[in-house]
Structure to design on (254 residues):
């Protein structure tokens, strides 16, 4: 899946806001060993490292394009590695803090993934995760409806990405069953206010739309893009447009 750092960063301030909420929940300890699962361009991983004096921090990401930009933020305490979240978890390397900001929604089967991540924590370690609440966000719902229509379903070979994101109750139960001693889990709306409906298309084109645009080719791809834009205009009539983007913030200590 080809990520475009420039497209992703077009809404940098809006994408960064939940990171700071997650960062505020971190329990800072001396000389921590920290990993950022899905570090993207590395800019926020650098800010994470800045908050943790003396910590050794590794950021992993599957995207070579993102990691190329991450090189600018590397230093003696901060290193970046190209690796998927599944590959990293399988190493069973232990950490004081496992951090993941807007990334694990791209990894399937959270019922299995979360316990595997927890197993990589040292005793007394902390898990901190932020991700979009894809099942409740309107653009994600509209996209899911569109790709299930016959012409696009056929062009996609019946492929469709089903969100792995669970309910808050499910995550709380997974934490509890895997030895959590304390947890904070909540959902928050981060309002995206844009002057025109086309900006909402640009917003989702930097994330959830990517795997579909990668698979569609030629005229059907152009039709798909135009139809999605048309539906966005019909759904969000008033300008400026308020998009109530929902995210899940979670931290747990083990």
């Amino acid at each position: 899946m080809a990520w475009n750092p420039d497209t992703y960063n077009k809404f940098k301030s809006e994408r960064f806001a939940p990171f700071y909420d997650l960062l505020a929940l971190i329990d800072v300890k001396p000389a921590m060993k920290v990993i950022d699962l899905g570090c993207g361009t590395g800019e926020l991983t650098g800010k994470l490292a800045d908050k943790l004096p003396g910590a050794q921090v590794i950021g992993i990401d599957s995207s070579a394009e993102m990691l190329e930009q991450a090189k600018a933020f590397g230093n003696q305490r901060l290193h970046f590695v190209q690796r998927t979240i599944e590959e990293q978890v399988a190493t069973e390397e232990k950490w004081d803090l496992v951090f993941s900001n807007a990334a694990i929604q791209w990894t399937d089967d959270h019922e299995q993934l979360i316990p595997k991540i927890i197993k990589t924590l040292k005793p007394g370690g902390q898990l901190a995760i932020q991700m979009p609440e894809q099942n409740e966000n309107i653009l994600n719902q509209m996209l899911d409806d569109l790709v299930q229509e016959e012409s696009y379903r056929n062009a996609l070979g019946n492929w469709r990405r089903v969100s792995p994101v669970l309910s808050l109750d499910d995550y709380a139960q997974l934490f509890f069953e895997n030895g959590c001693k304390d947890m904070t889990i909540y959902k928050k709306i981060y309002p995206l206010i844009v002057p025109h409906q086309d900006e909402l298309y640009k917003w989702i084109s930097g994330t959830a739309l990517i795997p579909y645009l990668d698979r569609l080719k030629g005229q059907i791809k152009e039709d798909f893009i135009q139809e999605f834009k048309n539906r966005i205009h019909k759904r969000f009539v008033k300008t400026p447009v308020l998009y109530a983007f929902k995210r899940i913030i979670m931290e747990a200590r083990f």
Observations:
- The chain has one domain: 5-253.
- Residues 5-253 form a domain with the Rossmann fold fold (CATH 3.40.50.150).
- Residues 168 and 185 are 7 Å apart (CA to CA).
- The chain has a mean pLDDT of 95.
